[in-house]
Amino acid sequence: MSWGDQQWSPDEHTHGSHGSPPLDLDQLLAKAVAAGASDLHLTIGAPPTIRVRGSMLPLPESGLTAPLEARQLRECLYAVLTEGQRKVLEETRELDMAHSVHGVGRFRVNMFWQRDAVGAVLRMIPWEIKPLEDLGMPPVMGTFAGLKRGLVLVTGPTGSGKSTTLAAVVDQVNRTRRGHIMTVEDPIEFLHQHRGCIVNQREVGADTHDFRSALKHVLRQDPDVILVGELRDLETISVAISAAETGHLVLATLHTQSAQDTVSRIVDVFPAQQQQQIRTQLAATLQAVVCQTLVPSVDGRGRVPAVEVMVCTEGIRAMIRDDKLQQIPGALQAGGRMGMQTLNAHLAEHVKAGRISQDMGLEHCSNVGDFITLLGGSSGAASQASVAAAVQAPTAHSGAAATAGGGRRLDPSDPWRVASTPGAR
Hints:
It is built from 16 helices and 13 strands. It is of the alpha/beta class and 425 residues long. Strands 9-8-10-11-7-12-13 form a 7-stranded mixed sheet, sandwiched between helices. Strands 3-2-1-6-5-4 form a 6-stranded antiparallel sheet. A hairpin with a 6-residue loop joins β12 and β13. α9 (259-268) crosses α10 (275-285). The two termini are 25 Å apart. Residues 1-23, 399-425 are annotated as: Disordered.
């Protein structure tokens, strides 16, 4: 019987029993890392569960096959919290934090209440910050670390590796420049040492009350580069644009899936009467947008980044300013010499090189017809077949993920092995 077959019972699991074995969170995390997991899920009514390449599996070799009980899980999680963190969790019913295990790794933690019991999801964060080239990112991204001012956005769905990519850009700035880097994160994920730059990392909740408060004061802290963990609201976006206007390089993330959508999302946050002003400011300050996703490799042992890159040329700035965003995809296709590319073009390149399967490309592409054309197909029959394959692709993906988690060993050299994975929280 799998954990999914277990039926949750309020009487059995909410109150717990004094006879349930104690949980050691650090030991569970060590086993999860050894299994190549990206996330560890802990909730009542199910045993400890990990996510391996998108598939949810019971944690192997944990010795825990029975569903977790409320008292057992609460004692496990509260053991790693400070008194202040416990108070926040009980008052707000949510808590974001980071947790480190010596010799194992660092973890982003979200604790929450559900069904009147505490639960948690822990995301693995690699100790080592991989260079952009080791992550398989396009060469043009290395040039962004040399920008003196402007706004660079790394976007994508949840679990697409945005934090890993931004950490690599910040690390390159740190190694190649002399300056001051300020980060505002929730929580701090990758730890940066002082190298060529002084690096100050502020965590929301521990070092500052919120993103808005931190960004309000960041310009008085003499920064050269500002990293914003996420552009969440109108005020955060306004301050980020203002910082970019005043001669700082601002790096930030958004949950958008194309360059065109990214510009639209930023503009639409503002009231209608302000939107033209924001288009003008964005056209002047935006330097680049990188939209990425992670695709399972054809051998099932790793993941490959598929990336859309928009570099803001004078032509693209005019499209943003004049609200002609529908022209952006065409500009990306024509901007290869500037390092620009569409997501579909990069997926097609991966398929031709044998890095990913065509089914995986179809599942992750933004336009099936465009993707098939880039692969060299042109017939109506090919297009119909591609649509059918795209419909079936999620099933194939689930099977591949399950195989990777069970029968195939993950490649330990894969830089995305314990980074964010598609479908992960």
